[in-house]
C-alpha cells in the first residue's frame, strides 16, 4: 500500500506562503528572511518580517479601494497585479470565482481562454463517475477453476478474472488467497491463468512524454485490465550495526536487489534524492535494481518504482502470495479468457466508488483516474464503440451536454490530466463545480478533495495563513502548468467555487499566484451588489 512521506521543514519553510506573497508584492528581487534555527533562536525578526508583509498587503488593498474602484474591480486588479509581477505574460492566468450561498461578486480573469488543466481534470472524471456509475459502484476480482479437488490438491488451472479495480491491493489479494489454505488446499497442479479482458483498447493508450528522467515513477503507471497493487514495488534500505539491508514489497522472484548502499556512523538521515535506484533488465524478463548511496545507522530510505509489465507483475505477485500462504502452484503463467463453465472459488469486492475517488483526488492518483475513465467507457459502450477510453470520454461529454454545460474546446484525453493535450476553460470548470454543488452526491465529491493546509496535495500549502480546513481544493501540476479547482469559504462563511490555472514557461511562480487567489477570496472577498465582470 502506498504511504505518503513528508519532508521535515525548518521554521523558514513554515512561512513560505508569506514569502511568496512578498515576492508577488515587491518583485522577485525581494530578500527572503534568514533561516532561524536552534533552541535559542529568537523569532522576533520573523515576526517583524511577517508584520511588514501584511502591512504592505493591506496598504495595497486599501489604496485600491480608496481610489474609488468597485469591490470587484479592486479584487481582480490586485490579483492581476500579483500575476503580472510573477508570471511572464498577462494571459498566463485564468480564474473563475463564484459565490454560492452568500454575498459576493463573480470574478473572471481570462475565464474563456482554453488552458492546460493538469490534474484538476480528475474532478471532471470523478464527478462524472459518481453520477454515471453511482456512488455504490464496486469492482469484482474473481478466482475460478476448471479442475477438481482431490484431497489437498486442486487438479486443474487457477483463473484470475480481473474486473478493472483501480485499487486492488496486495492486502486484498493476500487475505483472499489465504482462504485456499482454509479450504484445505496446498497444491494447484495446473497453470495460473490471468484474464484481463475487462477493457477494450484496440489502439492502445496515448503516451505521455515525461521529461523527468524517471520512466519508472509511480505517476506514470498506465491503466490496464491486469492492474494490481498499482503495479508498484516498494524498495527499502535500512542501516544498522550490521551494515545495510535491502528488500522490496512485494518480494518477487523476477526482481533482484543489488544493494551497494554503505552504512556510516549515526547522523542526520539523508534525503531520498541522495540515493540512486538503477534497474538493469535481463533477457529472461528479470530485473536487477542497483541502489547506491550512504546511509547513517538507524536511518532508512525507500523508493516506489514500476518496473514490470502489468501482466508479469500481477502473475508474479499472485504466485508470491500463494507461496506465502503455503500453496504450491505447479504450472506456468498464461493469459487467456476464463471458460464459461469454470467454477467460482473466491471473490474480492472493492470498496465503493466514494472510497475510490477519495484516493484519486486527495493524492492525485493518475493510474486510478485513468482506470476509472476506462470503467465508465466499459460500462457505457454503445453500438460501434470498440475503445473504452473513447467510449468513456464520449459518455462524459454526453453527460455534460445533458446538464447544459458548454464543452466547446474541452479535451479530456485520459481523464487524469496527465497529458499535454487536455484543455478546459476556467468558466467550464466552474460550471461543472456549480452543478456538482447541487448534485445529490456533492458531499461525496467534496469529501474526496484535499483540505487546505491539512491533507492530500494541499497539506503544505497556505499554512499559517488562517485558512486551515477552510477549503477543499484539487491541485494540478505539470511542466509549465499549475492549477486549482474546488470550493473555499471566505471570512463571512460564504462558499465560493474557484477554478484557477496558470500556463506559463516556466510556471514555478504559478503556485504562489493561485495561493494568492485563494487567500484573497478568504480574507478580502469581492463583496457588494450583484455584479458579473466580463472575461
TrEMBL record:
Tell me which UniProt keywords the record has, alphabetically. Answer: Carboxypeptidase, Hydrolase, Protease
Kindly list the biological process annotations in GO that this record carries: peptidoglycan metabolic process; proteolysis
Q: Which InterPro entries match?
A: Beta-lactam/transpept-like (IPR012338), Peptidase_S13 (IPR000667)
Which N-terminal residues, if any, form the signal peptide? none
So which domain of life are we looking at?
Bacteria
The UniProt entry, under Pfam families, shows: Peptidase_S13 (PF02113)
Q: Which GO terms describe its molecular function?
A: serine-type carboxypeptidase activity
Q: Which Gene3D superfamilies match?
A: D-Ala-D-Ala carboxypeptidase C, peptidase S13, DD-peptidase/beta-lactamase superfamily
Entry's family note: Belongs to the peptidase S13 family.
Indicate what this protein is called per its UniProt record: D-alanyl-D-alanine carboxypeptidase / D-alanyl-D-alanine-endopeptidase (Penicillin-binding protein 4)
Amino acid at each position: 500500500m502506498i504511504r505518503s512521506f513528508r519532508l521535515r521543514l525548518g521554521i523558514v519553510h513554515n512561512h513560505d506562503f508569506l514569502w511568496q506573497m512578498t515576492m508577488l508584492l515587491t518583485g522577485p528581487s525581494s530578500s527572503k528572511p534568514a533561516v532561524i534555527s536552534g533552541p535559542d533562536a529568537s523569532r522576533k525578526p520573523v515576526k517583524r518580517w511577517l508584520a511588514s508583509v501584511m502591512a504592505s498587503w493591506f496598504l495595497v488593498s486599501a489604496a485600491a479601494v480608496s481610489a474609488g474602484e468597485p469591490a470587484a474591480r479592486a479584487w481582480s486588479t490586485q490579483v492581476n497585479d500579483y500575476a503580472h509581477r510573477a508570471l511572464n505574460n498577462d494571459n498566463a492566468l485564468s480564474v473563475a470565482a463564484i459565490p454560492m450561498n452568500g454575498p459576493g461578486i463573480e470574478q473572471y480573469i481570462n475565464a474563456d481562454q482554453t488552458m492546460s488543466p493538469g490534474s484538476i481534470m480528475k474532478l471532471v472524471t470523478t464527478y462524472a463517475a459518481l453520477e454515471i456509475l453511482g456512488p455504490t459502484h464496486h469492482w469484482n476480482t474473481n478466482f475460478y477453476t476448471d479442475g477438481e479437488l482431490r484431497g489437498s490438491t486442486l487438479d486443474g488451472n487457477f483463473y484470475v478474472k480481473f474486473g478493472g479495480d483501480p485499487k486492488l491491493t496486495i492486502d486484498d489479494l493476500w487475505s483472499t488467497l489465504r482462504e485456499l489454505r482454509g479450504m484445505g488446499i496446498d497444491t494447484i497442479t495446473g497453470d495460473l491463468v490471468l484474464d484481463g479482458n475487462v477493457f477494450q483498447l484496440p489502439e492502445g493508450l496515448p503516451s505521455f512524454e515525461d521529461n523527468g528522467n524517471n520512466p519508472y515513477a509511480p505517476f506514470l503507471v498506465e491503466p490496464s485490465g491486469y492492474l494490481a497493487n498499482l503495479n508498484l514495488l516498494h524498495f527499502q534500505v535500512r542501516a544498522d550495526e550490521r551494515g545495510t539491508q535491502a528488500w522490496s514489497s512485494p518480494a518477487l522472484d523476477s526482481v533482484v536487489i543489488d544493494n551497494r548502499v554503505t552504512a556510516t556512523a549515526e547522523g542526520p538521515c539523508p534525503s531520498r534524492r541522495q540515493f540512486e535506484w538503477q534497474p538493469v533488465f535481463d533477457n529472461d524478463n528479470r530485473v536487477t535494481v542497483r541502489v547506491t548511496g550512504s546511509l547513517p545507522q538507524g536511518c532508512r530510505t525507500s523508493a516506489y518504482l514500476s518496473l514490470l509489465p502489468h501482466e508479469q507483475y500481477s502473475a508474479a505477485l499472485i504466485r508470491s502470495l500463494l507461496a506465502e500462504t503455503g500453496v504450491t502452484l505447479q504450472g506456468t503463467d498464461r493469459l487467456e479468457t476464463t471458460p464459461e463453465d469454470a467454477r467460482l472459488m473466491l471473490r474480492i469486492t472493492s470498496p465503493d466508488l466514494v472510497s475510490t475517488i477519495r484516493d484519486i483526488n486527495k493524492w492525485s492518483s493518475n493510474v486510478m483516474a485513468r482506470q476509472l475513465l476506462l470503467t465508465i467507457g466499459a460500462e457505457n459502450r454503445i453500438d460501434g464503440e470498440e475503445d473504452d477510453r473513447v467510449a468513456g470520454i464520449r459518455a462524459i461529454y454526453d453527460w455534460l451536454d445533458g446538464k447544459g454545460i458548454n464543452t466547446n474546446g474541452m479535451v479530456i484525453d485520459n481523464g487524469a490530466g496527465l497529458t499535454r493535450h487536455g484543455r478546459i476553460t476556467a468558466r467550464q470548470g466552474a460550471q461543472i463545480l456549480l452543478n456538482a454543488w447541487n448534485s445529490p452526491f456533492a458531499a461525496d465529491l467534496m469529501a474526496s478533495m484535499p483540505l487546505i493546509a491539512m491533507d492530500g496535495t494541499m497539506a503544505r500549502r497556505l499554512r499559517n495563513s488562517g485558512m486551515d480546513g477552510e477549503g477543499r481544493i484539487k491541485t494540478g501540476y505539470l511542466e509549465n502548468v499549475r492549477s486549482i479547482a474546488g470550493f473555499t469559504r471566505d471570512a463571512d462563511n460564504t462558499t465560493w467555487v474557484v477554478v484557477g490555472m496558470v500556463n506559463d514557461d516556466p510556471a514555478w511562480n504559478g503556485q504562489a499566484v493561485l495561493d494568492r487567489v485563494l487567500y484573497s477570496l478568504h480574507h478580502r472577498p469581492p463583496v457588494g451588489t450583484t455584479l458579473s465582470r466580463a472575461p
